[in-house]
UniProtKB/TrEMBL annotation:
Organism the protein comes from: Brevibacillus borstelensis AK1
Keywords, in A-Z order: Cytoplasm, Methyltransferase, RNA-binding, S-adenosyl-L-methionine, Transferase
Pfam families: Methyltr_RsmB-F, Methyltr_RsmF_N, Methyltranf_PUA, RsmF_methylt_CI
Active site, renumbered: C233
Biological processes per GO annotation: RNA methylation; RNA processing
Protein name per UniProt: Ribosomal RNA small subunit methyltransferase
Example GO molecular function: RNA binding
Family per similarity comment: Belongs to the class I-like SAM-binding methyltransferase superfamily. RsmB/NOP family.
Taxonomic lineage from the root: Bacteria, Bacillati, Bacillota, Bacilli, Bacillales
Residues annotated for S-adenosyl-L-methionine binding in this entry: C111, A112, A113, P114, G115, G116, K117, E135, D180
């Protein structure tokens, strides 16, 4: 460890863990656990395993999750840029698995950046239903949106709101909500030395109070009968068992339910919460000295189906859905259709519902929920970003390249992962090559990675400047 662990932290953990403390503290001398989650929106895990240049071992509680060896660098591989996987340490894979989101549902990831759990929820939803991924801090939303794009997620809206403002807009709206709460980050000490510097006993208390506020907002947005998962990457009982127990005391309409894979985890510890409150032993602790992972706490709660819905009638009156043809919409629809005919002729009926096209300035989106009232909310991404309108022609977005499959495109240039021309493309260079003029989908081993535009013996580079390899 670069930074010594804070004395107040080690003293507390020793008092809590007693005989187990030695094993817990010894885990800090071991290397951090590294994992990746294969993106089933792009390919099945078995197909990735036959392609994978990394040596992978399964994560027991996540069918798409694998540990990789320290020397491997999957973040620096073109398959990462093509969104074939998301890097995530193994214990962080447990909360989204616990939520058990299903295709067609309405799901909220309330504290979402940089998007590890959002991308996992989207995989479970298989592109169907509505996923709202929210991040309160403007500086962190960009990374969230980039990951949503990279993984080819088409049914997510990315918002930059406070939980309270979302709760005003979406009372009793969601089937499932994940609160992967801001926390004191004790489970990050091994991986990120700066987490040690940022820690203090006061921060633990501040986080606990913030967690209760976030959970209150989440409870107001959950439908009767809906499911809420609360998780942290810290060990402090105040932010785990005690946050859940205090929430349950304030919200008797909620009860704890068992987690999938519970037998692989350690139970929550009731004696670390007020024993007069509800039993929190159905929650899970993922300890770094007991499994491969940095450490997590997860609790799954269900809201009674009989919950009073009077809250709904107190909410603001529902506005009528906007008419499909507002200013500029007709031209936007025509530009989109013309682009599809020219560059994506085999798209079939994907993105063909004109009422789902939304225009923000010159940016065209395809919303997963036409008619949803987003007015006045800070929206970073209103759905799948299709592109930018330039003189009534559509310049396709990077998100669109990553969301379609190679078979949909009129023109494809596919490189193998080891081809030096692919690296030149990822660095932003134009490539000399002959081909039919027009927008061309650039692929790695058949998986789209970005756009190029073929003209005059050159493939002009449209790989986004901010993502280019250095
Ligand atoms: C543990 S991180 C989320 C990690 C993310 N779920 C993932 O898997 O990549 C918690 C997030 O909550 C956000 N946050 C901080 N304060 C918040 C608040 N008061 N309400 C909601 N979110 C908050 C942080 O900016 C941070 O991005």
């Amino acid at each position: 460890m670069k930074n010594p662990l804070p004395a107040a932290f080690t003293a507390r953990m020793q008092a809590l863990l007693q005989d187990e403390y030695e094993a817990f503290i010894a885990s800090y001398e071991e290397a951090a656990s590294h994992g990746l989650r294969i993106n089933p929106l792009k390919l099945a895990p078995a197909d990735f395993l036959s392609l994978s240049p990394f040596s992978l071992e399964p994560v027991e509680w996540c069918p798409n999750g694998f540990c990789y060896r320290e020397g491997d660098r999957p973040g620096k591989h073109p398959y990462h840029s093509a969104g074939l996987y998301y890097l995530q340490e193994p214990s962080a894979m447990s909360p989204a698995e616990a939520l058990e989101a299903l295709p067609g549902e309405t799901v909220l990831d309330l504290c979402a950046a940089p998007g590890g759990k959002t991308t996992q929820l989207a995989a479970a939803m298989k592109g169907s239903g509505l996923l709202i991924a929210n991040e309160i801090h403007p500086s962190r939303v960009k990374a969230l949106s980039e990951n949503v794009e990279r993984l080819g997620i088409t049914n997510a809206i990315v918002t930059n709101e406070t939980p309270e403002r979302l709760a005003e807009r979406f009372p009793l709206f969601f089937d499932r909500i994940l609160v992967d709460a801001p926390c004191s980050g004790e489970g990050m000490f091994r991986k990120l030395p700066e987490a040690v510097e940022e820690w203090s006993p006061e921060k633990v208390t501040e986080c606990h109070l913030m967690q209760l506020d976030i959970l209150d907002a989440a409870s107001a947005m959950l439908k009767p009968g809906g499911t809420l998962v609360y998780s942290t990457c810290t060990f402090a009982p105040l932010e785990n068992e005690q946050s859940v127990a205090a929430f349950l005391q304030r919200h008797p309409e909620f009860g704890m339910i068992p987690l999938p894979s519970a037998d692989l985890y350690s139970p929550g510890e009731p004696k670390w919460a007020d024993p007069s409150l509800q039993d929190v032993s159905l929650a899970a602790r993922l300890w770094p000295h007991k499994l491969r992972g940095e450490g997590h706490f997860v609790a799954k709660l269900r809201k009674s189906a009989e919950t009073d819905t009077a809250e709904l009638s107190r909410s603001r009156p529902k506005k009528k859905a906007k008419p499909a043809s507002f200013a500029g919409k007709k031209e936007a629809v025509a530009s989109w259709q013309s682009f599809v005919r020219e560059a994506l002729p085999n798209l079939g009926d994907l993105y063909a519902d004109d009422s789902a096209l939304l225009l923000f300035g010159d940016q065209l989106y395809y919303t997963p929920r036409p008619g949803l009232d987003l007015d006045g909310l800070r929206i970073n991404r209103a759905g799948l970003h299709l592109g930018t309108l330039k003189k009534n022609r559509l310049e396709p977005s990077h998100a669109l390249a990553l969301a379609v499959c190679a078979e949909a495109a009129a023109r494809v240039t596919s490189f193998s992962a080891a081809d030096p021309d692919l690296i030149r493309y990822l660095k932003g260079e134009a490539l000399s090559r002959e081909g039919e003029a027009g927008w061309t989908l650039v692929c790695v081993d058949g998986f789209p990675i970005g756009w190029g535009k073929q003209a005059d013996g050159q493939l002009k580079n449209h790989y986004p400047k901010g993502l280019r390899w250095l």
